[in-house]
């Protein structure tokens, strides 16, 4: 299966940004970890990060007809981007929402995910391991 792993705004700052909340690993290190865990699985991964809503939407559109699943940490866009939500529902590719931190245990504004009901699952509070759980869910999905 071809899986797109997408990270949104400020996730390029992992390793520097709020280490107590998000951990000490950089995004490259997390992506390497995902690659390592995916070794031996029948999966082809592509990684993408952007701080721009439109770029994330373009990449989702690009995935149409090309990818079998999307793992998305949309960062703060999770909480208010109806445009990203509509992009996910436009492409009809199974998408799993991932958050490093437990968004339900943080500020009130993070409790709401406007993308949750167009995703097949939400995984949060498990750090980088969340991406692996998301991958497993997508690999179990029927084509
Ligand atoms: C996040 C949680 C969001 O609330 C926040 O805006 C992020 C990261 C997470 O991975 O825990 O940028 O998606």
What would you note in describing this structure?
With 143 residues, the chain is α/β, with parallel strands linked by helices. The chain has a single domain (2-140), classed as Dehydroquinase, class II (Rossmann fold, 3-Layer(aba) Sandwich), CATH 3.40.50. Helices cover 34% and strands 18% of the residues. It has a five-stranded parallel β-sheet, sandwiched between helices. Helix 4 (82-91) links the parallel strand 3 and strand 4. Helix 3 (53-63) runs parallel beside helix 4. The longest helix is centred in the N-terminal third of the chain and has 12 residues, at 27-38. The radius of gyration is 14 Å and the shape is globular. The chain starts with a strand and ends with a helix. Residues 10, 73, 75-76, 78, 99-101, 103, 110 line the site of 1,3,4-trihydroxy-5-OXO-cyclohexanecarboxylic acid. Belongs to the type-II 3-dehydroquinase family. Keywords: Amino-acid biosynthesis, Aromatic amino acid biosynthesis, Lyase. Pathway: Metabolic intermediate biosynthesis; chorismate biosynthesis; chorismate from D-erythrose 4-phosphate and phosphoenolpyruvate: step 3/7. Pfam families: DHquinase_II.
